[in-house]
Amino acid sequence: MSAEATNPGAHSRRRGRPRIDLRRLGRAALLGPAGRDRLPDAIGHVADAHRAHHPEADLAILHKAYVLAESSHRGQFRKSGEPYITHPLAVTLILAELGAETTTLTASLLHDTVEDTEVTLDQVRAEFGAEVCYLVDGVTKLEKVDYGAAAEPETFRKMLVATGNDVRVMSIKLADRLHNMRTLGVMRPEKQARIAKVTRDVLIPLAERLGVQALKTELEDLVFAILHPEEYERTRALIAENATAWDALDAIAENFRTVLREAGIAAEVLIRPRHFVSVHRIRIKRGELRGTEFGRLLVLVGEDADCYGVLGELHTCFTPVISEFKDFIAAPKFNLYQSLHTAVAGPDGAVAEVLIRTHQMHKVAEAGVIALGNPYVPVEGAEPADGERADPTRPGWLSRLLDWQESTPDPDTFWTSLRAELAQDREITVFRADGGTLGLPAGASCVDAAYAQYGEEAHACIGARVNGRLATLSTVLCDGDTVHLLLAQDAASGPSPDWLDHARTPAARIAITSWIAAHPEGTKIPAAAPRRPAPVTADRPAAANAVVDLPDATVRLAGCCTPVPPDAVTGFAVRGGTVTVHREECPAVARMKSLDREPLPVTWGDSAECRVTLIAESFGRPRLLADLTEAIAAQGAAIVSATVEPPTQQRVRHTYTLQLPDSAGLPALMRAMRDVPGVYDVSRAQHPAATS
């Protein structure tokens, strides 16, 4: 494979920066360290890049790490022929250019010493301290001799666990993989493809989640060149054919500069070329590309408020494409990314995409967690934390991943679940009923939220309220939803196999699968859901307790709305000299009036007794029917009849016709029924009534 094909990201390198010659670095490495008063020439590029971000950095430890790395790797060569020391040097240079702090660069220089030389972790700890030792150990591969085919997944498991305590471990791994991908052309095609697939499925999603866009985009292009050489070559030719595309963007950028200068906003306007994969995706989405679509305009300002000032000026002076506007400053992405996205149309109809951010936002957008420096420097005056260090940069996805990997001792299951987890390319945040938040992949359901919040206790989940409304466990959640999860009181409750159809997160799928495997007999049919039991009749007679001004008329309370004192009611004469009494808001009243049926005035009598039909909506669980009837009896109500409909999605509907000694007790009765665990609503009957 040509040098160009193995480095498709070269087109986006900063102009004016000399290309690093790894062969020259290799020859310098063979000469050994330079004089005591300066760093070796081979690491001079690293020192310059590091000092550009950290002017006060102490380079002595880098000198010391380079000497150990060079001496321990001396005599080792890469498959490309360069001395092996060129690899840790190149990895360290990648991190230095992104602004990594000194400890990360020290560990990067030493990252292969324990794995490939006689240097031990104890020696690294003694020479460079526990911090550097932890990072080196985190990226050291497990031996195939010990783990066999499980070596690769178990190595990634080890790195992820280490990353949970220190995100710099994964920063080094990503830079290591980037340099290996840049020089992959010397490998056999089948090995290139295998490494590229792992990079695509695992490393690129991790780079995206850690916000390291500079590494992610180049890795994407390198993988694209290996796995899709024809599409890559077509895209490369397309970019070459449109070399003058920048003229259109240059003209718009100059207009931007003029507008912002006249508005008094200090801003830098740059053109950002799209990388190869981005051009390929845009071409598939939009077909033939116009010149402005080969890049985007980047506006950099000093303060957050200036971002919105720039947005206002651009939307005032140019035609905005409103559908393209996104505010990732007010609502940052889960990977630390902040920016305003918009697009404007020029006089010729050409649309230019625009990114607006501060210089600090841009640094984080490019380097992600690497731009944060050392997140573990203790705050002055703060008490040291006991146990595991709290990582302020740990996103929700990483905590979630660390939790479920503990439940997957099998390497194949872990490897499959890891790829599935990382394939979720968007994250949503939902709010819990207690005010906390849950980070979930886009497309997650209430099942996923239950296991994210409660772990294995979610086996007893029987339903949820989403934004205050009852929802099934299969309901797909949206960003910003509020979720109140309802658990059964019976600890023996278990998940349904149907839940697997709605679970998107590995944590939920692994927990459900494990429970089903441990309980092959499944869950018992809830005792609260019998099939249409015969009506239960009380000994008390029914009494209407309603009075109408119609001689010899029989008064009957309508079953569709079951009115009780002091409801506002009205009556209608029906066949047989009977007057049926309805609540005034009952739909049957409107139907009667539409048929020109004359309403009759109705008043309540002196008797306090009343009959009412109540509908109880509940989640199925054992003993629910018994608990409900006990609550009804405790309020002094008699059950005239009761029916329970067959359960659907663990939801059960109960219908009770009750005789109350006093209508004033109805609110208390309904509250008592709602307080029964598993019951989520109790309402008066509102059945449609046939026209008499």
Descriptive overview:
With 692 residues, the chain is of the alpha+beta class. It is 41% helix and 16% strand. Helix 12 (189-209) packs antiparallel against helix 13. The chain is elongated and about 115 Å long. The termini are far apart.
How is this fold's topology laid out?
Layout: H1 22-30, H2 44-53, H3 60-73, H4 86-97, H5 102-109, H6 113-116, H7 121-128, H8 130-139, H9 144-147, H10 151-165, H11 168-182, H12 189-209, H13 213-227, H14 229-241, H15 246-262, E1 268-273, H16 276-286, E2 295-301, H17 304-317, E3 319-320, E4 326-327, E5 340-345, E6 351-358, H18 359-367, H19 396-405, H20 411-422, E7 427-432, E8 437-441, H21 446-454, E9 461-466, E10 469-471, E11 482-487, H22 506-518, E12 546-548, E13 554-557, E14 569-574, E15 578-583, H23 587-594, E16 600-604, E17 610-619, H24 624-634, E18 638-644, E19 651-660, H25 666-674, E20 679-684
Helix pairs in contact: 2-4, 3-5, 4-5, 4-11, 5-8, 7-8, 8-10, 8-11, 10-19, 11-12, 11-13, 12-13, 13-14, 14-16
